[in-house]
Each structure stands twice: as C-alpha cells, then as structure tokens.
C-alpha cells in the first residue's frame, strides 16, 4: 500500500511513458513549434506587406484605406480612388516582391532549423535505455556478471521493463555462478573426508597395519554409504533443477509413510535422547511414496543430529479441504536468529564449526525442499514458540 501511494504522488513529468506516447509527444511539440513560427512569421511580414501596398497607393486611396481600418467613413472621392486602385492592391497582395519572398524564405528556413534541432534533441534522448541494456549485455558476455543496465530519467516503460528484467537475469546468473563455485568447493570438501579415510584404511590393510577384519570392513562400508548418500542427494537436486525428476504419483497416506520410516529410525532417535510423540491422522495425497519417506527420513536425521537429548519429538499429520500437512517439532537449541530462510540452502549448517560426521553434508534439507516443491507443495523450517524448531510440509490434495 505504501509503494502504491508513493507511485501515485510521483510528479507527472517523472513517470515513465510508453515509447509510442513519447514519440507522439515529440511530434506534437514539433507541430506546435512550427505553428508558432508560422504565426510569428505572418505577424512579422504582414506590417511589411501593408507598408509596401500603401506605398503604391495614391494619397486619396491611402486615406480611404486608413479610414476603413479605423472604422471611419472616408470621403466619396477617396472611396472612388480606392476602388479604382483595388486591382493594383490585389496584385500587390498576390505577387509580393523579392524582398517579401526573401523574408518568407528566411522564416521557413528558421522554422525548419528549429524543428530539426528540437526533434534531434528530443528523439536523441529516446532509446538510450536499449543502448544501456546492450552495453550491459556485452559486459556480461565478456564475463562481468556484475554489470547492470543503468536507469534513465526519460526512459520509456518498455525500456524500464527491459532493463529491470535484464538486471534480474544478470543477478540470477551472478548468484548461480557464486553458488556453483561455493557448491563445487563444498562438494570437494564433503567427498575428501570419506575418500581420505577409505584410502588410509585400504593402504593400512595393504601394508599390514590393519587387519581386514569385520570391524574394519564395516567401517569402510559406512564410509562408502556416506559417499553414496552424498551422490544420491546431488543427483536428486540435479534432477529437480533440470525438471527431469520422475515421480511415481499414486494415492499416499502420510501417516502410513511416517510409520514406515519410524520402524527403522526410532531406535536411533531414542538412543539420541529423543522420544517420538505421534499424532498421526490419515492424510491421503497424490505423491511418490518413496520420495515422501526420503523427506521424512532426512528431516528426522537432521533432528537427531541437531536436537539430540532434547526429549519429546512431536510428529503430526492432518489434512483439510485443500492440503495435507506433516509437522515435526523438537525442543532442541533451534536455529540462529534470522537464519530460518537459509535452513534449506545447500551446504549450510546451523553450526559451521561442526565436523562433517556431526554436522552432516548440508544437503539433506535442500533435498527435502526440492522433493516437496516437485510435488507442488511447500516446506517450512522455523523456530518454535515453545523452543526448538518446527518443520512443516504442505502438499496439495
């Protein structure tokens, strides 16, 4: 409402007009200037022509002419002289002499010059917004993704919209490049730790430092499983970003899928000091059941990692006329202030000091949001009013 009021009270001359209105306005101004010049020329030449005509009249005819112009009755002889000489008067009006023609030519040339200068100045100011966009596009092509199209005062609505869309696109490209660079570095960091462990253990077994017993093999398998999870999460995000994720959509009960996940993960939750409290109402949606289980498992694993020893873990499902909802509330430390929007960012952790084995890969919640949005739903993660965090998944029915 505030933005609308500011736009409403903006001065008329500062509004951006459509290009067609700008061109029509320039043409109208040029026509008005031409009309003013023509009227001025006529007003300037008329006394000169009048003097030329009076110079050719006899004194009697001139007296009659002046009498008529001053609303007086001239003498009869003067009227007769004026009538006799009227033919010469008409010829003088229709055939001005060379000096009159010269003055007319000067006025026409002056009007043409003024009109050209005015048109060149006004029309030259139009279209500069397109030039700015073209220059910014050249800079972006050359690799400078920080280039932006500068706004202009006299830009048309089309130029303003084009510049705004271009700047939005350039900002998206810059953000994507930054995320790609950060993501590449983060992926390398996430893969380096398990690969280093695998390499060290395998070298140790090859050199006879470690015995290839079941304990060592189990540890190596866990590292391989961690690598597989990271690769699987990256593949899921890639499929979602390219709109190539295939979903096996069928009627799915959120309550049943939560129970399926809890069968396997509940012992781990209880071992980490979490007591699931269930309030599961049957909530049928059209969804991919395996992906829904992946979402539930990722959120519970995140809760187990960051809210361990926090006691009750409330898990609820319900539905209304438009959507089905899954809600998970813990009583852990919660998110840092003003960081709830970053909870779904790739490779972001609430505690940057955590090691990978305690802080996770940083991909779990990003995968959760990607899967939920692929179903046309919405995922929310925020601090709870009673302490801890609240995750909510809303899926259209």
From TrEMBL:
Subcellular localization, as worded in the UniProt entry: Membrane
Keyword terms of this UniProt record: Kinase, Membrane, Phosphoprotein, Transferase, Transmembrane, Transmembrane helix, Two-component regulatory system
Chain ranges of the HAMP domain: 133-178
Pfam families xref list: HATPase_c, HisKA
Cited SUPFAM superfamilies: ATPase domain of HSP90 chaperone/DNA topoisomerase II/histidine kinase, Homodimeric domain of signal transducing histidine kinase
Catalytic activity: ATP + protein L-histidine = ADP + protein N-phospho-L-histidine
Location of the Histidine kinase domain: 186-397
SMART domains: HATPase_c (SM00387), HisKA (SM00388)
Entry keyword Phosphoprotein: yes
Bilayer-spanning residue ranges: 102-123
Chief subcellular location: membrane
Enzyme's top EC category: transferase
EC number from the UniProt entry: 2.7.13.3
InterPro entries the UniProt entry points to: HAMP_dom, HATPase_C_sf, HATPase_dom, His_kinase_dom, HisK_dim/P_dom, HisK_dim/P_sf, Sensor_HK_Regulatory, Sig_transdc_His_kin-like_C
Entry-linked CDD domains: HAMP (cd06225), HATPase (cd00075), HisKA (cd00082)
Keyword Transferase attached: yes
Protein name per the record: histidine kinase
Biological source species: Parasphingorhabdus cellanae
